[in-house]
Amino acid sequence: MIQVDNLVKAFGPKLAVNEVSFTVERGEVLGFLGPNGAGKSTTMRMVTGFIPPTSGAIRVGGYDVLENPLPAKRLIGYLPENAPAYADMTVQGFLAFAAELRGLAGMARRGAVDRAVELCFLENVRHQVIDTLSKGYKHRTCLAQALIHDPDVLIMDEPTDGLDPNQKHEVRNLIKRMGANKAIVFSTHILEEVEAACSRVIIIDRGRIVANGTPEELKSRAPNAGAVWLRVKGVPALALTDELSGIAGAASAEVMKDEAGIVEIRVYPDHAKAGAGLTGEVAELAAQQKWTIDELRTEEGRLDEVFRAITLPDTVKGQ
Amino acid sequence: MSAWTNINAIVKRELGGYFTSPIAYVFLVIFLLLTGFFTFTVGSFFERGEASLVSFFTWHPWLYLFLVPAVGMRLWSEERRLGTMELLLTMPVTTWQALIGKFLASWLFLALALALTFPVVITVNYLGNPDNGVIFAGYVGSLLLAGSYLAITCMTSAMTRNQVISFIVAVLICLFLILAGYEPVTGLLSRFASARVVDLVAAFSVMTHFDAFQRGVIDLRDVLFFASLMGFALFTTGVIIRSHRAG
Questions:
Q1: Residues of A with CB below 8 A from B16's CB?
Q2: What whole-number distance in Å separates Cα of residue A303 and Cα of residue A44?
Q3: Do B20 and A129 make contact, defined as CB atoms within 8 angstroms?
Q4: What angle do CA B167, B168, B170 make, to 5 degrees?
Q5: How many angstroms separate the CA of residue A54 from the nearest CA in chain B?
Q6: Which of A81, B53, B86, B153 lies in disulfide reach of B72, CB 3.0 to 4.6 Å?
């Protein structure tokens, strides 16, 4: 549905977006991650046809956004950053206006407004002026506007920004549900959101795509993905490290904590030797040595660690 | 067809925007009070002893100088400040449809304000026997004048997200368009420059063209002057909006 090729946007000498390419098919939810100012919003603004790219091509539903913007825009529902809305209108009036611009009239328009109000839980504030709404309601009003014509393509810039935890949860579920038959792109800083709702993640840093894959693929790139963590009582730390790093599938073992006879230790897998069975090997060794194990678990990589590893500036990385 | 639907939706929204806030009512009251004050007190409507609306129309260029920029200053600057411009222009709407819709809405609002001055027409018809054709021409001229100022305000409002700046710049440009043909200024200019230069400068003034309407003449050239002024200002607005988006 969305096809972006070698997108470049220069603001003066600065390249805000640099050779970005990706595709999103129907049924996919693409999460856009990146530090502030990485070029997430700029990319979305170009895909929705708000700003023209310096070079590159964008196709939405087969229509070229630059040469044939109107049919492309008809397919897109867009929630811009900070969820702008006409402050002097009521929620109902604003949604009806959006529906009218989307070419809906009469019964269809009324039906669309009702549906959007219900989807975004706006029933209580339906006749209230937008200026008087709390941030969460304003945000959902703008989201409702993006959903009003049941678009095939949904592009959302930080859809959960400014919502409380319950609302965040609702919006995430909504995204996940709609993702089944739409092509969705959304940006966020919240990593758990990506894990909860996305089928694919793109990490963008200083205008470039630095990672592209499923959340699981990205997590496995974390330094401690697949590592085994265990807490042992009454065994000296040195003996533990010696034994554990001697395991065939292990690359090294690191003592995390050593207090009052309780040692916490992490065993890193040797990826070259397919470290899938590391947990079993560690458990076997512990049984042989008759260690008293308090706790033992396999660590999954955490997305925030991957994110930090990928997006920290080189100067910081070097330290 | 679809273009007209879009323009229509935007006109309705903008007009609604005027009337849901106090702006519309404040403006209408001030406009009507000031037209009354200028016509009857400053313009000495009664002392003239003639059945015409000369004292009514004479003041319009000066009245509009402040009131029209006040109506139009928020048109685009507010959209930019609130970020709704991004919303509007990512809808299936072209920049031109949005531009014309917003302009038409404000012009309709000014037309409404002008229409509400109908009591002066009734008064002058009650008191005497005026040439209603001249009065009609005066109204047409006044509406075109308001449209021209409005188009200029549209342009200045697209330049900045600050309404005050957009207001001041619009007033300055409109003031220039008045002064270029204002008699004290043309008189001063004729001391230095040849008559042809003075005429040329005066031809750019709204005063020169508005005068004809007041005398009851709807000349195609005057209509074209206002139409091209509006066309130019709106075209420039479109270019400014495009350039903002290009970053």
A1: 89, 93
A2: 23
A3: yes
A4: 65
A5: 9
A6: B153
C-alpha gyration radius of chain B: 19
Quote the tokens at residue A68: 């044939």
Tokens matching residue A114? 């009702």
What is the DSSP-derived secondary structure letter of residue A155? E
A 106-135: CB under 8 A from B: 129
DSSP 8-state assignment for residue A129 = B
Report how far residue A58's alpha carbon sits from residue A47's, in angstroms, rounded to the nearest whole number. 6
pLDDT digits (tens, 9 = 90+) for B99-156: 999 999 999 999 999 999 999 999 999 988 889 999 999 999 999 999 999 999 999 9
Q: Do A73 and B13 touch (CB under 8 A)?
A: no
Q: Which two tokens stand for residue A196?
A: 């909860």
Q: Which two tokens stand for residue B219?
A: 């000349």
Residue keyed to tokens 């492309």: A72
> Are A211 and A34 spatial neighbours (Cβ–Cβ below 8 Å)?
no
Q: How far is A146 from chain B (nearest CA, A)?
A: 9
Which tokens in the block code for residue B232?
């130019």
Interface contacts (A, B; CB < 8 Å): 73
Rounded to the nearest 5°, which phi and psi values hold at B213?
Answer: -65, -40
In angstroms, what is the C-alpha Rg of chain A?
25
- Minimal Cβ distance to B84: which of A69, A70, A85: A85
pLDDT digits (tens, 9 = 90+) for A208-234: 888 888 888 887 777 777 788 888 887
CB contact under 8 A, A89 and B89: no
3-state SS assignment for residue B104 = helix
- Residue A275 pLDDT level (bands cut at 50, 70, 90): low
> Which structure tokens are listed for A288?
């042989």
Q: Which of A132, A92, A135, A130 is nearest to A112 (CA)?
A: A92
pLDDT tens column, A96-116? 999 999 999 899 999 999 999
pTM: 0.86
Cα–Cα nearest to A266, from A284, A279, A285? A279
Q: What are the residues facing A78 on neighbouring strands?
A: A155
What CA–CA distance (Å, rounded) separates A250 from A246? 7
For chain A, strand residue ranges (E) read 2-11, 14-24, 29-33, 55-60, 63-64, 76-79, 153-157, 183-188, 200-205, 208-213, 228-233, 250-259, 262-269, 292-298
